[in-house]
Amino acid sequence: RKVKGPVGPLAGRKVLITAGPTHEPIDPVRYIANRSSGKQGYAIAAAAAAAGAEVTLVSGPVSLADPDGVTVVRVESAREMLTAVEAALPADVAIMAAAVADWRMAEDAAQKIKKDGSGKPPTLQFAENPDILATLGHHAALRPRLLVGFAAETQNVLDNAASKLTRKNADWIVANDVSPATGIMGGDRNTVHLVSRDGVEDWPDLAKGEVATRLVERIAFALGARDA
Ligand code: CTP
Ligand code: CA
To answer: Of all residues in the chain, what percent carry a pLDDT higher than 90?
Structure first.
């Protein structure tokens, strides 16, 4: 039997995706985390694999099964996520869909923090986590040719997304409004705006799988155009 290589619009392309939250330990029994189901990032990984790409998905803790045909690297913290992302380079495309915790504890607590009986809660000291998207955006040697970030905002969605595009040196930002009134967080649908240096494209309300398929189509088109 003749073995065929991958076929599809992303055949031969390496795609790196982050998804899910990160967990930052407070002590051995507690952590801080962002709200993220991982569904959108996993859907993008599945769509990219279906389009023939060689996909690495670096995933924070989520309760989702590995998508078919995708190499999944599971991590907990932002710093572990950055290490795994850098280990997966080079990539043609990187899509940073993870909801990375902005802060971790400034110091590791080796022991469980105990109530001291005074009734006064402890004060936690935070340190800022590395920005994985910005690290890739400013990578001298290994910046992916197409770098896509996400921006989940509760206000000034498009302005905030545009400033993230510039600050992190991304090519596109997929922006969405996650204010509680939208009820979007954790659901199966998403209403996004594709923000690039050329302007903003408003996409209709779509299932997360449809957002993924459209994004993958746009990526294949953009890479094709860049090859020509
Ligand atoms: N991101 C990242 N590493 C971080 C923080 C964010 O890679 N430490 C990525 C996210 O995966 C996403 C994009 O940056 O693709 C925007 O994340 P967001 O949290 O909206 O941006 P921040 O720069 O953290 O700004 P904010 O203060 O609004 O949280
Ligand atoms: Ca953030």
So the answer is: 86
